[in-house]
Amino acid sequence: MLAKDWSVATVMTMQSGVPVAVTQxxxxxxxxxxxxxxxxxxDPKLPADERTPAxxxxxxxxATANQFTIGSASRNxxxxxxxxxxxxxxxxxxxxxxxxAIELRLEVFNLMNTTNFGAPAAQLGPASFGTITTALxxxxxxxxxxxxx
Length: 149
Description:
two-stranded antiparallel ribbon; 0% helix
């Protein structure tokens, strides 16, 4: 239980991985298509214990489609990494008579310091295909003061 004039706010976000569109390096460029999908020749999903940022999905499940053909891969054959985040804010308002007050806030974003990876590289051809090279922000802490008058 918090004392008078204190408050706490939390936000927890848990999301499954976003769908990832796999394309290939050469462009189709006809019949209204601007990107070309590769052919699907296997199962692109890896078991969870085999997924790493260096190898997020089964890259051998894709093969280059011939120029001016639409590959057999579906629009979003793989999913990116999931996202987990807990944000917390602790606030206290101290009054000085009338409507004047100071509000002090301590905010912590990504409280658990969870590594939330970006989407994997999804263009067949470059060496980075199937790898994750980005991550979202680590824990961020900020302190703020607001004067009400």
